[in-house]
Amino acid sequence: MKRVGITFLALGAVWAAAMASAATTVTLNVVQIFGTIDPAKVTDYTGYMAAVNLYDGLVTVDKDGAIQPLLASSWEASPDATTYTFHLRPNATFHNGAPVTADDVVYSVKRLLAIDQGPSYLFKGVLGPDSVTASDAHTVVFHLQKVFSPFLATVPLIFVVDSKTVQANVKDGDWGQAYVADHDVGSGPYMLESWTRGSEMRLKRFDNYALGWGKDPIDNLRFVVTNDEATVRSLAASGELTMTSEFQANETYTALAKMSRFRVVEQPTGTAFYLKMNTQVAPTDDLHVRKAIACATDYATIRTTIYPGDALAGPLPAVFKSDYLDTLKEPSFDLNCAKDELAKSAYAGKGPIPLTFTYVAGASFEEEIGLLMKSNLEKVGFKVSLDPEPWNRITEIASKVSTTPNVTEVFFGATYASPDSMFFTQYDSAASGTWSSMEWLNNPDVDKMIADARATTDPAQQAAIYKKLQQTIVDLQPDAFLLVQKVRHAMDKCLTGYNYVPVQSFDYNFHNYSWTCGN
Amino acid sequence: MEYFFFIVRRLMWSLLVLVGLSIVIFMIARVVPGDPARIALGPLATTEQVANLRHKMGLDRPLYVQYAVYIGGLVRGDFGQSLLTQRSVALDLRTAFPATLELVLATIVIATLLGIPTGVLAARFKDTWVDNIGRVVSLLGVVTPSFFIALLLQLLVGYYLHFLPVNGRLDPSVSFTPDITGLVLVDALIRGQPGVWFDGLRHLLLPAISLAAASLGQIARITRSSMIDVSRKDYVEAARAFGIPDLVTTFKYMLKPSFIPTLTILGLEFASLLGNAFLVEMVFGWPGMAAYGVRAILHKDFNAIMGVVMITGAFFVFVNLLIDVLLGTVDPRIRIRGARS
Amino acid sequence: MSDLALSPSATPDESSRHRAWRRGWYRFRRNPAAVAGLVLVVLVVVAALGAPWLAPSPESAGTFVNFGERHQPPSLHHLFGTDNVGRDVFSRVLYGYRVSLLLVVFVLGLSVPFGVLLGLLAGYYGGWIETVIMRITDIFLAIPALVMALAITAALSPSLMNGMIAISLLWWNWHTRLIYTTVHALRHEEYVEAAKIAGASDAHILFREILPNCISVISVKVTLDAGFVILIGAGLSFLGLGAQPPTPDLGTMVASGANYLPEDWWESVLPGLAILFAILGFNLLGDGLRDLLDVEVS
């Protein structure tokens, strides 16, 4: 019996290999399930990964964060920056062959705002249900409710759905949610072929893609859901895996790098890792306490041993080149500095200072950082209680000042390609009450600078404001700035075209990839 | 007739237990700190969005109304929407439950096929080294945490010997959806795919063995002691005296009566078997109720938690009912005892 | 035995009880499995109580990291190796037994008296009291304890305390059922009837006449239970719902060590063996006591 089975499997492998020479298939693992593929509801990295391959926006983002044409071949803004006009490509079609028209764009925006999930929060107070109109079949006009200079950077997150198909499948006024949950109604570079929830999703190339295809495109995509390191390693060893997720353990990258087929591609990202300190509750309401915590942080051990990354000097990662303040000094680990700062604080001399410290339960590197911090902080006079919480519980406790811990380990990356995404979402008092603003900074100067930058359309002036803002925030020390995340993938040497993009999962748009080994 | 009433009474009672269970778990699930609306919307949603969705989901209505709505749906087989997978819990369970069922069935097969012979051998060679080894093995099976057995097997058989796969239900290269019964081994046979069948079996072995250890130990122990009891009975002595071969006496006169305690033990063990399945599934990345349930618990996915607990409870109650009925058929005395309690 | 008989203070009743104990102890000693169980349990208790003195690196149980020494294999310096932040695994196992025993004491201390009381009431009074109590236990039995504990702990947010509360909430019903069955059989015994006729109060009959006769059943059950409480506690913390770091918890250690399999096997396998030893000890001891006291527990 066993022999028969092995022979059969071997035959299967030969057959698979034969198929592979006809069409290129990229198999990559993702570490969490695809919750939804509805572009109006996606929130997480797998959701955006599906959306960016199945759907197109009017525009997209490149590796430098610059806006590039997609469904719209050109666009212009009115001088007062309240009206944006997009001209659609005439040849774009949906996967079912229907042309992409201005009406589809209008419907997609209405649908996004009506469902009120996913990326719709970006357009609160900026777009209303009637803000978008079609002036002809290929021209769409957005009338903004107020000046919002980062607007163009948020447009890539509006994905266009085939309005006729969706409308034909509306049930009980649900905007087609039940249908779009399982069906692809997009015009993106890939089409949904099969989807087994919890285990894998297969996409195939859309031949008539509006942007066309270059040489050696990827024909089939297969996303395998597993967060088990052993499985990833064995898939790689059996020749099946083309690319790993960006969340593997160090050991897995090392093991794959030893296999001749793989190389490890490492790039800096726009995602920073912070220790967010609640500036409204004792003892972290005291600037000296916050400075003491920053001094007691062993940056080098964290960056080299625990979680590889680049140094971070302030709130903004260096990827935002033109707006980055390069005169900031890298923070350093110094327990004496921590003791001195603590002595200057209002809480000095009353015995150990209690401190609550939260991180995501189950993430072993976050636990290691927690233990390292606890050990160092207790040397200088804190009494630290470590409270790991599941991620969704963290989003919950972040909604109130009183339940927000003194210190929380949080990753934050831009959701749209503008420094505004980093500053507004984390530090503006209007954005308080979320996991990304656990500092509760509520500082009028900071608020004003963010608003000024938003109302300015001159890039140079904006950059000046952002640079000043970085210095102000560093002086307030609402965070210990741990590191800039590096994104690492082990991938087949034949697979090229990967580039980190500072927005959501846009780096997984496989239209940009190619298979350079030939068939 | 009396037997019929016994079954009806048992059925009614099982139903009542499930209703009680639904109330208990509903209370637990709804007092959980954690707002499912916020979770569904993702971390960057505004407070207003959250309030809207709470209203849409009926979370702002009184608890008893929410319960009534839930039970109303349950009767129609509707477990509500899952927050995490964004589709109906019933649909999710339809894929998760068969995976667990397959694991549990395989476990029971292994536990009985190995447990009974171990017990028989131990009884036959009472107080010899065979018996001692059998007893030590059964004891270790009972006292070792199933997740630890799972880890050890994974380490030894999977990592060091590279003999069997250590993760999942099928190899990722095998594209197969068990869409008939939901059991890979059965569906692969029906569809005539021996390669898939073999791969499914290879994936099933380690988790099933880890899970079977405890039940195997209990069954071996109970078989041994009941065999020893029976062997002292007159009719067995008589059979021996008549020169009926040893093997025949062992199997015909002694083994048959020991099925009753084995069945009883399976019923008693079933709760812990299901509980342990949660741990073993996590270790082997088995895509069953545990992976689904633990994820639901961590994400405060109410409907999914309720669904997992209710299905697990119903499964448990059903199996015990089945065992009672079987025992009632085998041994009428049990019916009377059951009817009185 | 003769010196006992000579002792003037010993009433005949006491000396016969003494004799029974001696006979029992003799039988117990001749049962190697039971003796092994006793030895294991004593070792576990000594390890737990003496951890601060026995552990080569007591600081490893608390706030301590040493990233330079992470993932060291077992050696004379680190008997069980070190974990992912460089703590001594052996020391953490010793302290881990403290957490396990704390769990046992807490859970059984809370659930046994409560469960026994309900069992006494249900078995003695019968009628609607029996119906209500026993039907509630049926509901709790309809769901695997671990699954229920999981749901409860998740509801309360994971911590050692909440894990203990969750397990206690589930454990009482086993004792209720056991005592109920025992009392059910005892309530028509002659001495109970006699006490009733003599006009003794219900409380007197329950606690002075019936309860003492349940003691041997309870003590065997409690010993066996200790092992199972450790088992279920380990399962709970294995899923990340037990004691939180840096508290050394054996189940948590197995789970986090498993991330580093197969290379750094000691981080999960050795704490796992430690759990196994404790459960094995209580189980063997419980079985031995059962034979010794000749009671039926299941």
Task: Please summarize what this structure is.
Chain A contains 16 helices and 18 strands.
Word description of this protein:
The complex is a heterotrimer of chains A (519), B (341) and C (298). Chain A is α+β, with helices and mostly antiparallel strands and 519 residues long. Chain A has helices at residues 2-22, 45-54, 102-115, 151-154, 163-168, 177-180, 229-237, 250-258, 287-295, 299-306, 335-344, 364-380, 391-397, 419-427, 444-455, 459-476; strands at 25-30, 59-61, 67-69, 72-77, 83-88, 132-136, 139-143, 190-196, 200-205, 220-225, 262-277, 309-310, 353-360, 382-389, 407-413, 479-492, 495-496, 514-515. Chain A has three domains: 35-180, Dipeptide-binding Protein, Domain 1 (Dipeptide-binding Protein, domain 1, Alpha-Beta Complex); 184-265 and 488-515, 3-Layer(aba) Sandwich (D-Maltodextrin-Binding Protein, domain 2); 268-486, Dipeptide-binding Protein, Domain 3 (Dipeptide-binding Protein, domain 3). In chain A, the strands form five sheets. Chain A has a six-stranded mixed sheet with strand order 12-16-11-15-13-14. In chain A, strands 1-10-9-8 form a four-stranded mixed sheet, covered by helices on one side. In chain A, β6 (132-136) and β7 (139-143) form a beta hairpin. In chain A, α9 (287-295) runs antiparallel to α11 (335-344) and α14 (419-427) runs antiparallel to α15 (444-455). The model of chain A is unreliable at 1-21 (pLDDT under 50). Chain B has 341 residues and is mostly helical. Chain B has 15 helices and no strands. With 298 residues, chain C is mostly helical. Chain C has one domain: MetI-like fold (Orthogonal Bundle), CATH 1.10.3720. In chain C, 73% of the residues lie in helices and 0% in strands. The two termini of chain C are 35 Å apart.
What kind of sheet is the major sheet of chain A? Answer: 6 strands, mixed
- Percent helix of chain B, as a range, is over 70%
Span of the ends, CA to CA of chain A? 36 Å
Count of discrete alpha- or pi-helical segments spanning 4 or more residues of chain A:
16
- Overall morphology of chain A: globular
How far do the termini of chain B sit from each other?
18 Å
Q: What is the second-level CATH architecture of chain B? A: Orthogonal Bundle
